[in-house]
Write a sequence for this structure.
């Protein structure tokens, strides 16, 4: 069966017509075969929706993918050697945002309490394996993972992360990818991508976002804005040493077009936030994340308050890092926002070269 699958996929590769998205998405060598084969082995029947989102009023386009030169073979170069983060632990019960966040009613304890993280790249299988442990993984659990290349990290400028949490990261457009991970069996899987919330951008789960502004995710033919065109991440939920864990294996060929794999460092951000089903008050799910209000955050009440309850890779005082001292009179684009731009302050640095 396996050799038949490989022959079939070889046939597909030969028969694939040329085009921007194809060139971007399909490496030119045997990488494609192993990647596609792995994908075929792990694929499960996932649902997708057919609505479409436009976050900024611009016409849908594949400009990001097409503007890059797919004829440049270095464009699709993958990391050449194995690397790994090791197991990085996160404190238990620090899922309190700026120190006093509480969960909205009905959300089980620990739903966004990060416990562990690991990332490993295999040059043999050309895949990135991610594993994220939490105190609990429930319908409400969402984890954002941002991978940045060294250039993006060193630019120092900041950009929004996907997920409506008001976290600012180093500018990742063209230098990184952002993933939103969820239990695919969650009753709220894709909730905010499919429910008719006119006030909110829609954010599909278990997808690689390849561009932030305008929002684009990885579709079958490259960067896309159509919810009918989602290349799914096949996330699984497991218990690892009694810790509920989300695991996903990402083909390197899926992310390599969107970040530089030649720089010797990879930078990672991980943040956890909630989704709830509150169709009577859709504004509480703005931009794909539960909007923390005064009921859950007595310290202040401003939309710019961070909506991530827990972040990883904080060596110091997480509550201080996540505190926003805004008074609503200044733009959070300036200095009144949570910035995760420094190693040890919400950012993990991984060495990717031997
Ligand atoms: Ca934690
Ligand atoms: Ca907020
Ligand atoms: Ca933490």
């Amino acid at each position: 069966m396996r050799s038949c699958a490989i022959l079939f996929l070889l046939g597909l590769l030969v028969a694939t017509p040329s085009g921007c998205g194809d060139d971007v998405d399909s490496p030119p060598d045997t990488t494609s075969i192993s990647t596609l084969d792995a994908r075929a082995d792990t694929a499960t029947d996932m649902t997708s929706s057919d609505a479409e989102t436009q976050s900024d009023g611009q016409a849908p386009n594949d400009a990001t993918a097409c503007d890059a030169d797919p004829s440049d073979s270095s464009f699709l170069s993958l990391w050449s050697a194995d690397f790994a983060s090791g197991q990085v632990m996160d404190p238990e019960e620090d899922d309190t945002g700026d120190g006093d966040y509480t969960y909205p009613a009905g959300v089980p304890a620990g739903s966004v309490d990060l416990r562990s993280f690991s990332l490993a790249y295999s040059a043999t299988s050309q895949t990135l394996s991610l594993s994220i442990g939490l105190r609990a993984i429930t319908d409400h659990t969402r984890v954002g993972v941002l991978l940045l290349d060294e250039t993006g990290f060193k630019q120092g400028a900041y950009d929004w992360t996907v997920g409506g949490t008001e976290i600012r990261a180093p500018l990742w457009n063209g230098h990184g990818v952002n993933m939103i991970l969820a239990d695919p069996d969650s009753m709220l899987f894709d909730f905010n991508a499919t429910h008719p919330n006119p006030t909110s951008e829609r954010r599909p789960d278990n997808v690689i976002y390849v561009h932030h502004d305008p929002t684009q995710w990885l579709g079958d033919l490259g960067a896309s804005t159509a919810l009918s065109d989602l290349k799914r991440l096949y996330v699984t939920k497991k218990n690892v040493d009694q810790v509920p864990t989300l695991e996903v294996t990402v083909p390197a060929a899926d992310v390599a077009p969107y970040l530089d794999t030649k720089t010797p460092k990879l930078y990672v951000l991980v943040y956890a936030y909630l989704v709830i089903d509150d169709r009577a008050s859709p504004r509480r799910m703005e931009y794909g994340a539960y909007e923390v209000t005064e009921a859950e955050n007595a310290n202040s009440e401003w939309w710019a308050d961070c909506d991530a309850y827990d972040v990883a890779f904080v060596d110091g005082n997480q509550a201080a890092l996540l505190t926003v001292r805004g008074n609503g009179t200044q733009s959070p684009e300036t200095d009144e926002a949570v910035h995760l731009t420094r190693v040890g302050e919400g950012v993990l640095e991984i060495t990717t070269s031997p």
Q: What stands out?
A: Residues 166, 291-292, 303, 305, 307 surround calcium ion (ligand 2) (CB under 6 Å). The domain at 48-351 is CATH 2.60.40 (Immunoglobulin-like). The chain has one domain: 48-351.
